[in-house]
Amino acid sequence: RLPSSLPVSEITGTEGIEFDQFDVIIDALFGSGLTRPAEGVEEAIIGAINRREALVFAVDIPSGLMADTPSSG
User: How would you write the chain as a 3-class SS string?
Assistant: First the structure.
C-alpha cells in the first residue's frame, strides 16, 4: 500500500549500512519470530537502526528484542 514513488534499496552486505537520510524507519525484519541473536547483515541493519535518532515503527516488536527476557536499554 506504499506509494510506488518511494525509493527502495536492497542491502546485501554489512559495509556502510546507515539510515541517516530517513526520519521514519519501519522495522519489519523479524519481530517475535526470531529465536536466536541476529547475525551478519541482519545484525548490522539492527545496529544501524538503533544508532539512528529516527522514529521507528515495529510491525511486531523491535528486531532483536527478546520478549520473554527482561532487558535494559
Answer: CCCCCCCCCCCCCCCCCCCCCCCEEEECCCHHHCCCCCCHHHHHHHHHHHHCCCEEEECCCCCCCCCCCCCCC
Considering only CA atoms, which of 61, 60, 62 is closest in space to residue 52? 62
Contact yes or no for 19/54 (Cβ under 8 A) = yes
Which residues sit opposite 50 in a β-bridge? none
Amino acid at 65: L
Instruction: Quick: pLDDT tens for 6-62.
Output: 777 778 888 888 888 888 888 888 766 677 888 999 999 999 998 988 999 888 776
What does pTM read for this prediction? 0.68
